[in-house]
Amino acid sequence: MTLATGAAASQGTGGLSILILALPILLLVWLMFSQRRRTKALGEAQQAVQVGQEVLTTSGIHGVVAGLEGEVVQLRIAEGVVIRMDRRAIVPLSIAQAGPGRAAPGNADPGTTNPDAGGTNPR
Question: What pTM, to 2 d.p., does this model score?
Fold first, then answer.
């Protein structure tokens, strides 16, 4: 191998090395910005919660907003049962259903049951 062919071969792998190093960095930057966008959208949705809107708490409790007191939301979870929750601990049900990892309505996982049917989850 001559000096000229060795230099040409090393120049070709230099571009590949830069690409291999740049791809993970670009992936991390993309993940950071997409997470920031999701967090902003969730915060806006939490601030826009209105009385009568169906919500889901971060602990999995479904309910209807019965009242708003600044950062505290009164949540009706059953007839005559109202609990107080921090506004940051609730998500409007429309956003919760559209979130990642959730089955779309009508495409339920066969291992789960319909909560309206009164059954229990076998998992």
Answer: 0.55
